[in-house]
Amino acid sequence: MNTESAEIIDLESYDREKTKELLGQLGGDVSSCFMCRTCTASCPISVVDSRFNPLRIIRMILYGLIDEVLSSDFVWLCSSCYSCQERCPQGIRITDFMTNLKNMAVQQGYAPAGVKAQMDIIRDAGRIYPLDDFDNKKRAKAGLPSLPTSCDVVKKLLE
């Protein structure tokens, strides 16, 4: 560990109750993690980008560094491949935990620009990719029913 870049955590400002409440909201029961590093060793993303380290994220949450995690970009690097979750000897639902972290980050306004743009497109159009008559003709040729070109139901859900 590089001690020059390590941040000292002020335990006087650590809010144990807030951390417990957050862990309850996030699920995954990460408090049973015994830091074996199997999650990080199993993660294909951590091999190519050292910013993503499931164990480090879990530790940061356990140490109460909630805002630092939610405002970071490294949470969004999780590909949801479930390798960490499948191999965790404690049965911690790490991928589900990461998904919940992403959801919480969005709720608190920390979503990256690309995610925000996709959310805007879905809210405005009802789906990521527009669907037109050409697409429905291709569906008909494949023997599939046509789909409505607007998704008003999705728009209503996101209002």
Account of the 3D structure:
By secondary structure, this protein is mainly alpha-helical. It folds into two domains: 16-107, Alpha-helical ferredoxin (Fumarate Reductase Iron-sulfur Protein, Chain B, domain 2, Orthogonal Bundle); 113-158, no CATH class. It is 52% helix and 0% strand. It is built from ten helices and no strands. It has helices spanning 16-26, 38-42, 44-48, 54-62, 66-70, 83-87, 94-107, 113-125, 133-141, 152-158. The longest helix is centred in the middle third of the chain and has 14 residues, at 94-107. It is elongated and about 60 Å long. The mean pLDDT is 84.
Helices, strands, pairings?
Blueprint: H1 16-26, H2 38-42, H3 44-48, H4 54-62, H5 66-70, H6 83-87, H7 94-107, H8 113-125, H9 133-141, H10 152-158
Helix pairs in contact: 8-10
Question: Which properties best describe this structure?
Answer:
mainly alpha, Fumarate Reductase Iron-sulfur Protein, Chain B, domain 2, 2 domains, 52% helix, 0% strand
Gyration radius (Cα, Å) is: 20 Å
Strand content: under 5%
Strand/helix succession: HHHHHHHHHH
Gross CATH architecture of the largest domain: Orthogonal Bundle
User: Which secondary-structure class do the elements indicate?
Assistant: mainly alpha
CATH-level-4 superfamily name of the largest domain: Alpha-helical ferredoxin
Under CATH at level 1, the class of the largest domain stands as: Mainly Alpha
Poorly predicted regions are: none
